[in-house]
């Protein structure tokens, strides 16, 4: 397998770290792109991926900054070669009911969770089509399918992620580029561990498999969709939620 260059946004997060590891195990050169301000987490991330050596590198990025996204794409191409895999995993929550939600809480979530995907896809898709190969995997959420109390902003953004993905898939399919989304359920990440214990227990009780998901289970699905042999899967949304939401 040729070494593919991959960028993973939100790459030092709970899901992002495992995605980086999974892609590196598959022979990819992985760039973990995330906020530079999280210095302690960056140091911890580097320790966690030390076994992969130069196969995983960190680059600072604010996905909401369009110029920064363009700069990253140029920098990575110059240092490592053309990017052929993009995993958009960066995301935030600003939970509150709509009656209490202010404009900033809405704007921040849409700007990062949905706008960031536009920003990164926009600067990389031309290079992928020129190569005749590309794999784009966007991380959506089960709450984009079901809605969730206190998450009108997050649910809207994550539903939008898959709408974006379906449309992009149609645009680039004949160029050898696929675009798919993954909708994780509740996983054992810092974001979910921050939920009050009583509520988290209620969530687990509602999951048919009886547990939270593991980040590596999401990462395995990303690696599957990013594989060279996954070229006939595009415009799909893959639910990885333990049966929490089942649809046809």
Kindly summarize this structure in a few lines:
With 248 residues, this protein is α/β, with parallel strands linked by helices.
Polypeptide structure, described:
There is one protein chain. This protein has 248 residues and is an alpha/beta fold. It has a single domain (5-185, 216-236), classed as Rossmann fold. 47% of the residues lie in helices and 16% in strands. It contains nine helices and seven strands, in the order E-H-E-H-E-H-E-H-E-H-H-E-H-H-H-E. It has helices at residues 14-25, 39-48, 66-80, 103-131, 143-146, 152-172, 190-193, 197-205, 215-226; strands spanning 5-9, 29-34, 56-60, 83-88, 134-139, 177-184, 237-240. Strands 3-2-1-4-5-6-7 form a seven-stranded parallel β-sheet, with helices on both faces. Helix 1 (14-25) links the parallel strand 1 and strand 2 (29-34). Helix 4 (103-131) packs parallel to helix 6 (152-172). It is globular and about 50 Å long. The termini are far apart. The mean pLDDT is 96.
